[in-house]
Amino acid sequence: MNSRYGAGIVTSNEEGKLIFAWAEENLDSKDSLSIEAELIRKAMVKARVNNWKAIHIQSANKLLIEKINNGSIEDVRIVTLLDDILHLKECFDWCSFSFGNSNNMSLATKLARFGRNLTAFVEWKDNFPLWLSEHSQSYV
């Protein structure tokens, strides 16, 4: 039996202004560590495609962030994903990862909940739905 997961990624500039966001529905039975690692890899690929030079990624999965920051790829569940993330990291002038608590991750969490109900991938760049723009302003 598959579970429904929503994924939400939010990007902002140094001033906290929302610049890119996406949400998607994920039908998968993988564990949360694998799902989060896949999302981080997707975010890094999108940043690379958009020619971003510096990125900072926050995740609510503290164990995953520790594995990435320690360069620890021994976890067989996510060895390929971790290897990809560590190689993608080298594509940026500056790339860092940190654990984000629920307070500063609430916009991504809201997008993830939205993503659970989607049947297709949705992304926004420059023009955002009102509910997303209003929610992001409370964190600037």
- Give a count of the beta strands, DSSP E runs of length 2 or more: 5
Q: Main sheet: which strands, in order across?
A: 1-2-5
What is the percent of helical residues? 40-55%
Describe the largest sheet: 3 strands, antiparallel
* Overall number of domains: 1
User: What's the CATH topology label?
Assistant: Nucleotidyltransferase, domain 5
Radius of gyration: 15 Å
Oligomer: single chain
Q: How much strand?
A: 25-35%
Low-confidence stretches: none
Report how far apart the termini are: 40 Å
**Inertia-based shape:** globular
SSE string, helix = H, strand = E? EEHEHHEHEH
Name of the CATH homologous superfamily: Ribonuclease H-like superfamily/Ribonuclease H
Counting DSSP H or I runs of 4 or more residues, the number of helices is 5
Q: Provide the residue-averaged pLDDT.
A: 81
CATH class value: Alpha Beta
Notes on the structure:
By secondary structure, the chain is α+β, with helices and mostly antiparallel strands. Helix content is 40%, strand content 26%. The protein has five helices and five strands, in the order E-E-H-E-H-H-E-H-E-H. Helix 1 (32-49) packs parallel to helix 3. The mean pLDDT is 81.
SSE layout and pairings?
Elements: E1 3-12, E2 18-28, H1 32-49, E3 54-59, H2 62-70, H3 79-89, E4 94-99, H4 106-115, E5 122-125, H5 130-137
Parallel strand pairs: 3-4
Antiparallel strand pairs: 1-2, 2-5
Helix pairs in contact: 1-3
